[in-house]
Amino acid sequence: MLIDPQLEAMVGVADADWRPVLARGLQAVAAAQPDYLRQLLCGPFLPNGGRLFAAFAQPLDSVRYVLVGEGPYPRATSATGVCFMDGAVGSLWSAAGLSKPVNRATSLRNFMKMLLVADGRLSPERTSGDALMALAQEAQAAGSPSIQTLRELQENLLANGFLLLNAALVFRPEVPPIKEARAWQPFLQTVLEALAARAEERKQDAPTLVLWGKVAAQVEPLPIARRFPKAVAEHPYNLSFITSKPMQTLFGSMRLLERCVRD
User: Fold this and answer.
1) Distance of CA 226 to the CA centre of its chain
2) pLDDT tens digits along 184-232
3) How far is CA 80 from CA 28, 39, 117, 143, 248, in A?
4) Which pTM was predicted?
5) Mind listing the domains of the chain with CATH numbers?
6) Is the Cα torsion angle 3, 7, 13, 18 positive or negative in sign?
7) Which of these, 41, 116, 160, 241, could form a disulfide with 236 (CB 3.0-4.6 Å)?
8) Alpha carbon distances (Å) from 33 to 20, 43, 147, 198, 219
9) Is omega for the bond preceding 246 within 30 degrees of 0, making it cis?
10) CA 115: distance to chain centroid?
11) Cβ neighbours of residue 18 under 8 Å, at least 6 residues apart?
């Protein structure tokens, strides 16, 4: 079964090892819902600009964690095709704490606060106000080891082996995210099958599935998901995510807010 030339061009942004996997995933989506992809391509959706498979620039052999979020940001400037990486965010910090664009991106804001708590730099009882201002000033001081931009945070996540996916690869205002995510389940099944097969081939443990929120939790019932270790938490737009013990345990040693890190 051939895939649409528009989709084939979008697949071209992925790392070469991923391209046949993504083609099989799209064929699985089409087999499950024959009209879904055709209807998708008939109208606008996010991410635009051919970035639908941007997350798969991360080489298949580098993947150690599969972070699954809900879906793309509902704004063209923000939806990058990479989970939780808001394209409208540049600088992470301001004189008063986190930058305004970070504060507007609620999930990113809470993720950063969780990292600061996990790093032991922020008390879970005081994650705003003067405590955050002092940390921001320290982070922006000359010679600070702290990263300054969202791009650097993304690079650190990639360096630690994260594949930054969404359960629903697209956003359309007229389609509920949970329904959109169901349509992409055959695609995610195919992606996970490829990762499991590569791990088995190399006699390595399968990557850890990091599932955030109810929409991402739809991945758990997939048959292939049984072969992966999991770390599960509420969606980061919940304030309780900041103090999530499973996430603090997972991310605590990674030092993602520092330059040039590996776990």
Assistant:
1) 21
2) 999 999 999 999 999 999 999 999 999 999 999 999 999 999 999 999 9
3) 24, 21, 27, 30, 26
4) 0.94
5) 5-89+149-251 (3.40.470.10)
6) negative
7) 241
8) 20, 17, 43, 28, 18
9) no
10) 15
11) 53, 56, 59, 60, 194
